[in-house]
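User: structure tokens for this one?
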Amino acid sequence: MRFRSFATCLILALVCLMAAPALLADGTLLGTINGRVLDQDGKALPGATVEVTSADKGFQRTAVSDSGGAFNFPLLQPGPYIVKITLAGFQSFEALNNIVQPEKTTTINATLKLAATAEAVTVMGEVPLVDKQNTTATTNVDSTLTQKLAVGRGYQNLISFAPGVSNNSGGNPNVHGSLSSTNLYLFDGVDSTDPTLGTFGQNFNYEAIQEVNVSTTGISADYGRSQGAYVNVITKSGTNQFHGSFKLILTNDNWNSQNKGVSPITGASSAAAATGFATAARPAGVFAGADLPPLMVCNIGLSFGSLGAFAAVDLLVLGISLGISPSLFQQ
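Assistant:
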């Protein structure tokens, strides 16, 4: 009897663990695709079949245009989508690479032509520059850009790309004059803000970040408790294709040029001093002042994704560079 009770509890625990990812996914910020189906004269075409397919994950949703020719697909995960519209007696319509962004609406208006024979019209979509249904000022920095930026490998450094952000020291900026403790930090829509200090509550693997959204003004009432910005980090996920990446990012003091000259006011040298990270990275008491040897910093990033799963590793390796050049960090 005791064994049966223990087995029942164990099964319930496993079910809860399996359901946890699905529950967390409900917090993801989602987007919308809508539009109208019209004929060549600009009149609405009701009854058209509209199919929306995720280009990354392969899932599909279907709807039928209403009496006004309108269709609407809310609660879509961010990413590229394929929209296909068909109606008997008309050419089929297909729009590729329609990008859905969090809390944004992508509008696709299709004009169907009468078809004497079977024909199809294919158009290439793009990210909408202006969302007329959303007044929030949001800056999106996606992974194709984050991997090329010459910034520290942390999502906090990407916040500075949004207008109105200043004094981003330690990853907790002032936004439009607000305090650094009045920002809201989200991971896939789940609040991760430190409840005591009001600062960011956790770091995250840089290789596993899909994009970072920073909203500074016109923020919806759905996101209260914040007078500054709200920062949403969207993580990568598995797709319907196998994919992966490997990168090696290396910096070396020997490759940096030292500042030259002196201050015209004080006469002090403009050479950079070994402070901050440079000093912290070296063992205390081992090297001092000009005796500090050049430092080498190596970032190793590795990621892999498959059907419904994604994993990433980001390693930081510190070492002493072998070389003769005494130059330190460029200021």
